[in-house]
Design brief:
Helices cover 42% and strands 22% of the residues. Strand 3 and strand 4 form a beta hairpin. Strands 1, 2, 3, 4, 5, 6, 7, 8 and 13 form a nine-stranded mixed sheet that branches. The protein has a four-stranded antiparallel sheet with strand order 10-11-9-12. The longest helix is centred in the C-terminal third of the chain and has 27 residues. By secondary structure, the chain is an alpha+beta fold. Helix 3 packs across helix 5 and helix 8 runs antiparallel to helix 9.
């Protein structure tokens, strides 16, 4: 069957407030990060399925015939992303030679790609050849939702190629979004990709990447905030490796050891998330300097709380000190114990202040990006809407 060429992008994610507390039934605010993953899918007339992931030096191709034998036997409806087909996952693991303990980025990305592509095209009159190029501005393994952005792009492009979702892009559009109903379908397929990569994900990362903006997550329920401002931030990766599992277990131990001390801290983190949500809602219509002062104070308070529950790290303390010396406020985002931090920038923050801060942080060996949160979610692109580097990579140059 002929397939539709498609170029899409999806944002990463950061946690604004509520990390760790969310595990204990409190509110978390997850925000889209305007560092994006771009994907281009085009027909391949040579009877091959190719995936190119230059960020992680992975370039693979297979004959369509060798993949067809792996497709699910059942008649599948691409408009219905049900539970993960574990039989297909194990066939694919065998096909690409994955051992049980192997969870490196490249292997998991290829597994998710093959699963989504083969499943979406089941019973479509033969598996079509396709070439996929992916380029990401997101670092992998930093807790910034790079795998979710990849899964969302993959799901959207595969469903579009199959004709299971429409083409929202008009003749004169540079970018366009799908309808709510189609976004639900894309998100459901992306969630299956996330399950392959992470085992038991919450669904927050792919939801943020699909819808963008800011999402409230509480006790398994995900609610997008209807109107939110875009906020400028500095995102810093301390490059200090950490184990989320170990950090989460450490917090649990502390709560069990000192319940009367720790539970009020979790309640306070919950209140920080709720106060922040209220402030962001007010800012959507009329942002004032006072709103920014509130956001800065909330970041300071929450960072102290996160140190109290045991997920701080000297590298994050150094980030907070360095930015505060320039009048900027920071907190860790995600698991803590190293990893990443976010720094709020006001609309009138001087360029020289930002430049000086970035230089100092890079001098410490950290990676730094000036970006924004609350950015648009999944987009389809006209080729002309892409910047030079992205366009070059997606064209295979």
């Amino acid at each position: 069957m002929p397939i539709n060429e498609c170029i899409v992008s999806a944002p990463g994610k950061a946690i604004l407030h509520g990390e760790h507390a969310v595990v204990h039934g409190k509110v978390a605010l997850a925000v889209s990060l305007n560092l994006r993953t771009y994907l281009r899918l085009e027909p391949n007339s040579a009877g091959k399925v190719c995936i190119n992931l230059p960020n992680i030096h992975t370039f693979l191709s297979w004959d369509v015939t060798s993949l067809q034998s792996l497709q699910p036997d059942r008649t599948a409806d691409p408009k219905n992303a049900k539970e993960l087909d574990t039989d297909l996952v194990s066939r694919l693991r065998g096909f690409i030679g994955v051992t049980d303990g192997n969870t490196d980025t490249s292997t998991m990305a290829v597994l998710a790609f093959l699963y989504i592509y083969l499943s979406v095209f089941t019973e479509s009159g033969g598996l079509p050849g396709a070439t996929v190029w992916v380029w990401s501005e997101l670092p992998t393994g930093a807790g910034l939702g790079s795998s979710a952005a990849f899964s969302v792009c993959l799901a959207a492009a595969s469903l579009r190629a199959r004709g299971a979702v429409t083409c929202p892009l008009g003749d004169r559009d540079q970018t366009a979004r799908w309808s709510e109903e189609e976004m639900e379908l894309i998100n459901a397929w992306a969630f299956l990709g996330e399950k392959i990569i992470h085992g038991n994900p919450s669904g927050v990362d792919n939801a943020v990447s699909t819808w963008g903006g800011i999402l409230r997550y509480h006790a398994g329920k995900i609610t997008p905030l209807s109107r939110v401002p875009m906020l400028r931030i500095l995102l810093t990766n301390t490059k200090v490796p950490r184990s989320t599992k170990v950090l989460v277990a450490g917090v649990k131990d502390k709560i069990n050891k000192f319940p009367s001390i720790m539970n009020p801290v979790l309640e306070s983190i919950d209140a920080v998330s709720s106060t922040c949500q209220l402030t962001l809602t007010e800012m959507a219509s009329d942002p004032t300097p006072e709103h920014y002062s509130v956001l800065e104070e909330l970041m300071d308070i929450n960072q102290h709380h996160l140190n109290v529950i045991g997920v701080g790290h000297p590298s994050l303390d150094a980030l907070c000190r360095t930015t505060l010396a320039q009048g900027l406020h920071s907190k860790l985002t995600g698991a803590g114990g190293g990893g990443c931090g976010i720094t709020l920038l006001r609309p009138d923050t001087d360029c020289s202040v930002i430049r000086h801060t970035v230089e100092e942080l890079r001098g410490r060996g950290y990676e730094c990006w000036e970006t924004s949160i609350g950015a648009p979610g999944l987009l389809q692109h006209a080729p002309s809407s892409l910047g030079g580097e992205v366009q070059r990579v997606l064209n295979g140059h």
